[in-house]
Design brief:
Shape: globular
Low-confidence stretches: 1-82, 334-354
Function: Plays an essential role in chain termination during de novo fatty acid synthesis.
CATH superfamily of the largest domain: Hotdog Thioesterase
Number of strands: 14
GO molecular function: acyl carrier activity; fatty acyl-[ACP] hydrolase activity
Distance between the termini: 46 Å
Main location: plastid
CATH topology of the largest domain: Thiol Ester Dehydrase, Chain A
Order of helices and strands: EEHEEHHEEEEEHEHHEEHEE
Family: Belongs to the acyl-ACP thioesterase family.
Number of helices: 7
EC number: 3.1.2.-
Structural class: alpha+beta
CATH architecture of the largest domain: Roll
Number of domains: 2
């Protein structure tokens, strides 16, 4: 949101421009008397130059012939604001009206589609990660990949994922447009949670939901740390004032404890090696890579006849680039968990009901091949593929 225009005076004149980059028709920055830049709180919705002319306040006003020492600084800050907001202008995302959540739209690309001719679960997980990062940037948190606050950076603290739960009710196809809303809130003394709701942009149908838990870790010692009051105060101002959950806290599999899978497993894929492309900007194996490793040991007959509906992962140890990973899978007996089929939604959203007898369930374990240490514990639910039209 642009700041309110100042009254026009001899020392403070405003300027009107319909150029989306805030420059005049000759491609140059406006004169320092009428610099047309102001801080932007909300992202644009993707429209670049079709908006009507806007009147914006000057960063600094000067009289003809005067050269205050702060003018150069003001111009540099204005130019930096233009550079910083270019990506924001191109993204189809923004904070919501109350500033407590963030929505962004994405087009499903051809390279994000799998054998079912729909987006893969890895694609959806990557989009969740992207919109979460964009949300953090939009409220002023760091752009270094850690979404850290000022206090966290001073203390060398970062957020790491401890749990991820994703439910997909319908997979978007190539060229579909999805809208994802995300928000975060406090979760105990050592962590926070982030939730998402994914909709088909054309119809408004809720086609997926997700929730995650994050804990604070010292970047140097790799030890978990409690969230202190300074850090909590920095991010809680951007969180809903009352708990808002993508899933109801009762009768939901998102909170279900995952039993440890013991040897011998029914299915296994051994000797998985992290690729260089699997490392993220923080130099460890990206969260989404674990999803692909879990799916590697799903039996082919399940892949042929079913599609993934739910995946829950507990991240227990970091995986380094030189680790070798074993993926183990065993089927889980159908449980008398009628609450899953009775889910009626949360926050006014509608969630499809599913007959549990159509679900196949599996437990998963990712472990280090060398020492057998547990890296990740998982659980998946698969529904029968819809009949081809």
């Amino acid at each position: 949101m642009l700041s309110r225009p100042l009254p026009t005076t001899a020392a403070a004149a405003t300027t009107t421009t319909n150029n989306c980059n805030g420059v005049n028709s000759r491609g140059a920055l406006p004169h320092s008397r009428s610099v047309g830049f102001a801080s932007i709180r909300k992202r644009s919705t993707g429209s670049l130059c079709n908006s009507p002319p806007r009147t914006v306040a000057p960063v600094m006003a000067v009289r003809t012939g005067e050269q205050p020492t702060g003018v150069a600084v003001g111009l540099k800050e204005a130019e930096a604001e233009v550079e910083k907001s270019l990506a924001d202008r191109l993204r189809m995302g923004s904070l919501t009206e109350d500033g407590l959540s963030y929505k962004e739209r994405f087009i499903i690309r051809c390279y994000e589609v799998g054998i079912n001719k729909t987006a893969t679960v890895e694609t959806i997980a990557n989009l969740l990660q992207e919109v979460g990062g964009n949300h953090a940037q939009s409220v002023g948190f760091s752009t270094d990949g850690f979404a850290t606050t000022t206090t966290m950076r001073k203390l060398h603290l970062i957020w790491v994922t401890s749990r991820m739960h994703i439910e997909i009710y319908r997979y978007p196809a190539w060229s579909d447009v999805v809208e994802i809303e995300t928000w975060c809130q406090s979760e105990g003394r050592i962590g926070t949670r982030r939730d998402w709701i994914m909709k088909d942009h054309a119809s408004g149908e809720v086609i997926g939901r997700a929730t995650s838990k994050w804990v604070m870790m010292n970047e140097d010692t790799r030890r978990l740390q409690k969230v202190n009051d300074d850090v909590r105060d920095e991010y809680l101002v951007f969180c809903p004032k009352t708990p808002r959950l993508a899933f109801p806290e009762k009768n939901t599999s998102s909170l279900k404890k995952i039993a440890k899978l013991e040897d011998p497993a029914e299915y296994s894929t051994l000797g998985l090696v992290p690729r260089r492309a699997d490392l993220d900007m923080n130099k460890h194996v990206n969260n989404v890579t674990y999803i692909g490793w879990v799916l590697e040991s799903i039996p082919q007959e399940v892949i042929d006849t079913h599609e993934l509906q739910t995946i829950t992962l507990d991240y227990r140890r970091e995986c380094q680039h030189d680790d070798i990973v074993d993926s183990l899978t065993s089927s889980e007996s159908l449980l008398d968990d009628a609450a899953i089929s009775k889910l009626e939604g949360t926050n006014g959203s509608s969630v499809p009901k599913k007959d549990e007898t159509d679900l196949s369930r599996f437990l998963h374990l990712l472990r280090s091949s060398g020492d057998g240490l547990e890296l990740n514990r998982g659980r998946t639910e698969w529904r029968k593929k819809p009949a081809k039209k």
